[in-house]
Amino acid sequence: MLIKVAEQIGKNAVTQRAGQKLFEMIQAELRSGRQVIIDFSGVEVYSSPFFNNSIGRLFADIDEDAIRKHLVIANITQNGEQVVRRVIENAKAYYSLTPDERQRQDDVSREFFDSLDGL
Amino acid sequence: MEPEIHTVQVPSFNSARHDFARMAAIEKAISRATYGEIVEFRFNDCRFIDPAGVVLLALFQRRLRERGVQSRFYNSTMTPAIEANLVQNGFARAVGATELGRTGNSIPFREDLAQDEDSVIEYLREDWLGRGWVAIPQAMANDIAGKLLEVYVNAFEHGSSTVGVMSCGQYFPKKRVLTLAVGDYGVGIPSKASQYYKRDKIPGNEALKWAFTRGMTTLINQGARGLGFDFLREFVQVNNGHLEVYSHNGYAEVKNSGVTFESLSTYVKATMIRVTLSCDQSVYRMPDQGVKTFQW
Question: From the CA of A8, how many Å to the nearest CA of chain B?
Fold first, then answer.
């Protein structure tokens, strides 16, 4: 499956809404083990909410190896690549945690703020 | 019966911390005005007002309007330079004056009641970066617009501001810098952190530090997020810019030399983000103009 992002959402890959649209187009394909090429030709501006809602979310329920194998990101600018790589890194860290572990991470932060009471 | 009139003197405002303290005092004073009353803003002592000050005044006016309080801005008390600035950047018109026009070094005042990213990108690229004050390639302008857009997205996602998000900018020719201020009257970063962690009070400096931590987000069950400040911090540091965030009593400052967080003794209900970029193109690490295809 080839998706030309500029044709689908325009030249700004920035909104959560646009990210959601892309996510809905690619999720089933990747789950079925089919290749997806996302072509960013003509896209000018990139922002993390778009990638959080499109590619980052894939890591919630699709195996990382399957994403690596089947998802191709094509014709993206250096800035776009920087944003998507950071989003993927963040998503992998987040979704690698179990719900219990996420809860514990929140608890650690809460304990951190609790510890400030004594200062 | 005549409505009660509250008079405030707007101070000079250059985004120093004591300037915010003075604005905090004004915010507190005008919060006492009630429905049907009038707040007069006078500028007798004001010699300069930067974009963050303009945004704060606009936030004050909109909040007063929400409460049914009338605001009056007395241009007869302004210096010619202040009046020209407020007319040029569109603030005067936004608060009820009839003057039009934009010239000089002002970057127009902007008010977003709903999230409209495409329009914000055009504002950043054309009105802020595209006026010829900084000679950078289009790819760089796109890069900067994308990173600053994160500020707006953050404000809409986290802020819940009933008066929307406001912004204003200015070019300072002597310093050769461009400034952009973005403010809202949302819940604020310290309150958001307190809500999320179910704690009564989190010190301002720690709340801001938390907001700048990669991956931290107050949006529960929405997946991995929380990169907005991270991208902006990195960009500002790499390109020798300056970023300040004021939210309630929390303050963060990002410079090339590092990031500092403070708890202030004063409290402003608004959240204000102020970005300053150099117009010296030699400081910018220019992106590669090519495109790339990859799997990771």
Answer: 15
Extract the tokens encoding B60.
């004050």
Measured CA to CA, the distance from residue B81 to residue B49 in angstroms comes to 10
Is the pLDDT confidence value at A115 over 80? no
Residue B181 has pLDDT above 90, yes or no: yes
Q: Are A100 and A68 within 8 A, CB to CB?
A: no
The number of residues in chain B equals 296
pLDDT of residue B220: 44
Beta-bridge mates of residue B107: B169
Single-letter code of the amino acid located at B101: G
Complex ipTM: 0.79
- In this predicted structure, what is the pLDDT of residue B6? 95
By CB atoms closer than 10 A (0-12, 13-18, 19+), residue B103 is exposed
B contacts of A77 (beta carbons < 8 Å): 139, 142, 287-288, 290-292
Q: Residue B67 is encoded by which pair of tokens?
A: 């409460």
Pairing of strands B38-42, B70-73: parallel
pTM exceeds 0.80: yes
Q: Using the beta-carbon criterion (under 8 Å), do B150 and A75 form an inter-chain contact?
A: no
What is the length of chain A? Answer: 119
Burial class (CB in 10 A: 0-12, 13-18, 19+), B76: exposed
What is the greatest pairwise CA distance in chain A? 57
Pick from B195, B213, B222, B227 the residue to mutate for testing the A interface (most A CBs within 10 Å): B227
Q: What is the distance between the alpha carbons of residues B268 and B278, in angstroms, rounded to a whole number?
A: 28
